[in-house]
Design a protein that fits this description.
270 residues; Muramoyl-pentapeptide Carboxypeptidase, domain 2; 2 domains; seven-stranded antiparallel sheet; four-stranded antiparallel sheet; 8 helices; 11 strands; 19% strand; globular; binds zinc ion
Length: 270
């Protein structure tokens, strides 16, 4: 039996998911997913577009070949040749998010100037780093995934339970958050006070994750008072993780004790 795929392959419009990690939406889906190695999933709305079976590609939407980005996705699948693609530094061009920011009334250059944040490119390949608190797959860059697993195990040895709440998020995912909040009537400035603009979140990089601990609500400042946070303050650095948004950070982002980023010290850095 072939080993299960443990990478997410990413293109501008389509993600290639390991089929075993996807939930079936019905019986027909379940039968197809059980035979598929990968599934092409539209990023904009999460729709399953096609299943990759041993005997070939099975379309799950009408006129699959006319869907934007399908050819790119199939090219990447070929390049990945069954899952041995190097989980390296390849990134997607980040600029496509611009038009959709405008549609939301966010001017990218002005936002970047105001916050000191830069557009963050999505990686082409992400590694499965385990599962988050909600049993969803946790995707990170390969190095960050290894570091998170080590840090998680090390904390457990000290009797401290760390929970992943959220890792990699695509530009489309962040756009979805904004579009849903707008639809509920929130003003754009109110949303920007708690969410980075789509394209500007560290979560797009595959190097950032939100960390919690059982019994604590996700992404609340009260996390700062937990044993888990105390442990992270002492040991995260040894594993290459640092807090991105401490109090008084220059980006105007609220203090986020739960948000950590993998950035190992390079040669010559303290
Ligand atoms: Zn975060």
């Amino acid at each position: 039996m072939r080993p299960l795929a443990r990478t997410l392959l990413n293109t501008p419009d389509v993600e290639l998911w390991p089929a075993w990690l996807l939930r079936a939406h019905g019986n027909a889906d379940a039968r197809i997913l059980s035979r598929a190695t990968r599934v092409l999933r539209r990023k904009r709305d999460g729709r399953y577009m096609a299943a990759v079976l041993d005997e070939g590609l099975m379309p799950l939407v009408p006129r699959l070949r006319r869907e934007p980005g399908v050819e790119d996705a199939l090219d990447l699948l070929d390049a990945a040749a069954g899952d041995d693609i190097a989980a390296g530094a390849a990134q997607l061009p980040p600029d496509r998010v611009g038009h959709r920011l405008e549609a939301l009334g966010i001017e990218a250059a002005a936002y970047a100037g105001r916050t000191g944040l830069a557009l963050v490119a999505e990686p082409v390949v992400l590694a499965l780093a385990g599962f988050d608190r909600y049993r969803r797959p946790l995707w990170l860059l390969a190095d960050a995934a290894r570091a998170w697993r080590r840090m998680h195990a090390s904390a457990a040895q000290d009797g401290v339970a760390l929970d992943a709440i959220s890792g990699y998020r695509s530009h489309d995912y962040q756009l979805g958050i904004f579009e849903r909040k707008r639809a509920r009537g929130l003003e754009i400035d109110a949303i920007l006070a708690v969410n980075a603009a789509p394209g500007f979140s560290e979560h797009h990089s595959g190097q950032a994750l939100d960390i919690g601990t059982p019994g604590e609500p996700p992404a609340e400042e009260s996390f700062e008072g937990t044993d888990a946070f105390a442990w992270l303050s002492r040991h995260a650095r040894e594993h290459g993780f640092a807090m991105s948004y401490p109090r008084g950070n220059p980006h105007g982002i609220v203090h986020e004790p739960w948000h950590w980023r993998y950035r190992p010290a390079g040669p010559g850095e303290a």
